[in-house]
Amino acid sequence: MFLKYSVEEIFETAKMLSTENFDIRTVTLGINLLPCVSDDFEKLCDLVEKKILNTAKDLINKTNKIEEKYGVPIINKRITVTPVSLVLGSSFINNSKTDQEKCVKFAKLLDGIAKKLKVDFIGGFGGFAEKGLTYADQVIIESLPEVLAQTERVCSFYSLASSKAGINMRAVAKFGLIIHKISKKTKQGVGCAKLVLFANAVSDNPFMAGGFHGHSEADAVINIGISGPGVVRKMIEKNPKDLTLDRLANLIKQVAFKITRAGELIGREVAKELGVKFGIIDVSLAPTIKVGDSVAQILEAMGLEMVGTHGTTAALYLLTDAVKKGGVMASQSIGGLSGAFIPVSEDINMVKSAKEKVLNIDKLEAMTSVCSVGLDMIAIPGETKTTTISGIIADEMAIGVANHKTTGVRLVPVPGKKTGEYVKWGGLFGETVIMSVHHESSDEFIWRKGQIPPPITSFRN
Amino acid sequence: MIREKRDLKPKDLAIITIIGKDRTGVVAHVSQALYEENVNIEDISQTIMGNNFVMVMLVDLKNAKKDISGLRKKLEKVGEKIGQQIQIQNEKIFESMHRV
Fold this sequence. Notes:
The complex is a heterodimer of chains A (461) and B (100). Chain A has helices spanning 7-18, 41-56, 59-70, 84-88, 96-117, 135-150, 169-185, 229-238, 245-274, 295-301, 312-330, 348-355, 361-368, 386-402, 443-447; strands spanning 23-31, 74-81, 121-123, 127-128, 154-162, 166-168, 195-199, 220-227, 277-285, 339-340, 374-381, 407-414, 422-424, 431-433, 451-452.
């Protein structure tokens, strides 16, 4: 046998794996809970527990085995389930107080299962309300403050808008209040970091907090989230500062290709080991607070003094698009959110820029029109009006709906803190400065409620 | 006529990357370690990249005494001893990244 690769190619890969923080960001096992549906709540809980424990019993040890084999760290192991609005509804008895208690009990069950299996999050405690709120939706939404206060690893989402349905402004108004409640009930508002509101939600997202196992998926599936902002940034820094943007885009595309290929190799093996269908790879440059793991730093390496200045939206568009193109060439199974994430508290350069007031919510909103997630991990003053929160959500929903893309909102009002003060949640949630919001009122707009209709571009029949 | 006993087990290829400022003793130390673990060297190549010597070895782990994770730890120790950075990776990762 002879070496088929040049020393340079081998060296590039070796570097990626040793110093550039290339890792598989998450292996997420999605589990269908629809067969557990029952009007008997105890029976439902029992079936759910058995199903998850049985399907996921080898998730950790088999994933660790593959980690050792390839020497590529697999940072997070997670589970997503069928959105609970589809699972719990049958067991409700039309008494809101009792039914909400069931939600909390169920959430604690999921939390306990996650702890037993040693997965760091279990996602899917949510539902879909793009065109209306069912009784089950209302109960689950009302239960969220208690659910997120009393559990550690349960993540929640709600789909409030889609390009086909428009925006459910009654639900948007409701969530302004709910987010405020969650914030008051949890330490430094951290409960809000476990809730994402979506427009055009995707059913195979392996990342948290918005991941869930869509009802159109198979019984069990492995979805992989790959990341590698450090790898992309090093590639840019290695090349001349006057490299034209089209050539730069091509370089990024090539890096995305390589990391996607490596991720797919590993992901397929994990699925095979677990005897479960391989789903998709989500190629999303997702930052962590580790030094060198910042997405904002990539934008700065592209030639911006500080993320948030003029040119940021264009740079982010180039980056997101190049990552998608490289990913799609590398694998036929690309899905999830794929692109670039801009969660503020999880990106040290974003936080730095927010502190200096170079980055603000208005600029972040513009950036969400070209990246692959949304207004993410943004800390706002604890006393932000609920209608203002709803206004921010509505803006983000509109961007998603009008542009036929997925957008999300994960806002954290921090009780007792004002603009410019600091909050530290620790762990994956990171830390950040409280960002300012506009004081001018959105009250009357939000109080109108109703449904903002879908765009004409959706009428494609 | 001498019949050679053929080992029909499929190969289990890995690539070792050795990076350091000089080459003194690299081949000797690494080959010794691999010999001890019954790892067969199939091919070697090397070049200078910037300030570093980079050597790569294609090895076959099919008869190895340890699994790749164990070999990784051993090679790390060897690397520390001789001042080199030594990594070992399953060959499939390189194939997946560098070939369309």
